[in-house]
Design goal:
Distance between the termini: 43 Å
Shape: elongated
Strand order of the largest sheet: 1-2-3-4-7-6-5
Strand content: 25-35%
Number of domains: 2
Length: 277
């Protein structure tokens, strides 16, 4: 039985298993393993345990786990995961949507996907804040919904305002969806106890955004404020500038929204994967 459990556990963590609704593929694999172990145990108890044949229960558990491992191996070799090149080709030719592309890519190699995402966002932050210091950029969570994938990142920034250093606790919420990408960034440069104001503002903005993925403007997403402005930011090595809506809600509390359409998003995804890792 121990051998069967070990083999099934190895197979569960070796071969790709699609996962949804959780930030970690490890959790999904553990759930799959637990469910498979439960199903085999129940079968063994019904077939042998009801007769008092506990030795037979142990034997059936071992055989069942080996059988499940064999099924995982057979499915893998019958329908192997898409290679990166085939995914990119499908994205370029429109046979796969943006959200399905990033889901499949991250499911196949979550660590590589996250590292590339962090590297690209850190570079973009340093370009937009050339005189600032960025630290602690990390992926906090990855979640999925219908036709979208959400990445939540956090970081600390230090930049100079009127000759004085200012520390910012910041969050980035990136949505991949069929119509492109959208980024809501939240920054708090006031006292940490006042930064709790960010959470309800960010939650409201995300709810509005999910209802307006197909929109091309910057309206109707960020909560209303008397201090909102639209800025056009040049993006080094990019074909087009980026329009950013920035709203201030109280001293030191700010949200920004940026949208990128599907065509530009696809070009960016393809270019990123063509560059050096």
């Amino acid at each position: 039985m121990a051998i069967g459990v070990l083999v099934c556990l190895i197979a569960t963590f070796t071969f790709p298993i699609p996962y949804r609704g959780t930030s970690s593929p490890i959790i999904s694999r553990l759930v799959v393993f637990a469910l498979s172990l439960g199903a085999v145990t129940l079968t063994a108890l019904l077939l042998r345990g009801t007769r008092g044949d506990w030795k037979g229960v142990v034997v059936w558990l071992g055989k069942g786990q080996l059988a499940l491992a064999a099924v995982l191996v057979a499915v893998y070799f019958r329908d192997p995961p898409s290679s990166p090149s085939s995914l990119i080709t499908a994205l370029r030719t429109g046979r796969i949507t943006i959200d399905r592309f990033v889901r499949a890519e991250r499911a196949a190699a979550p660590a590589m996907f996250d590292q590339r995402l962090l590297r690209n966002n850190e570079r973009a932050l340093r370009e937009s804040l050339p005189d600032g210091t960025i630290s602690g950029l990390s992926v906090d969570s990855v979640t999925e919904g219908q036709d979208w994938m959400r990445v939540h990142m956090t970081y600390q920034g230090v930049f100079t305002v009127q000759g004085e250093p200012v520390t910012s606790a910041a969050q980035i919420v990136l949505y991949y969806h069929r119509a492109g990408t959208a980024v809501i960034a939240a920054a708090c440069t006031t006292e940490p106890r006042d930064c709790v104001q960010i959470e309800p503002l960010l939650a409201s903005a995300e709810r509005s955004l999910r209802a307006r993925f197909a929109a091309t403007d910057l309206d109707g997403v960020l909560p209303a404020s008397q201090q909102c402005s639209v800025e056009t930011l040049g993006r080094p090595n990019r074909q087009a500038d980026s329009r950013v809506l920035a709203c201030v809600y109280s001293p030191g509390i700010q949200l920004t929204l940026t949208r990128v359409d599907a065509a530009a998003t696809i070009r960016s995804l393809i270019a990123e994967r063509a560059g050096p890792e």
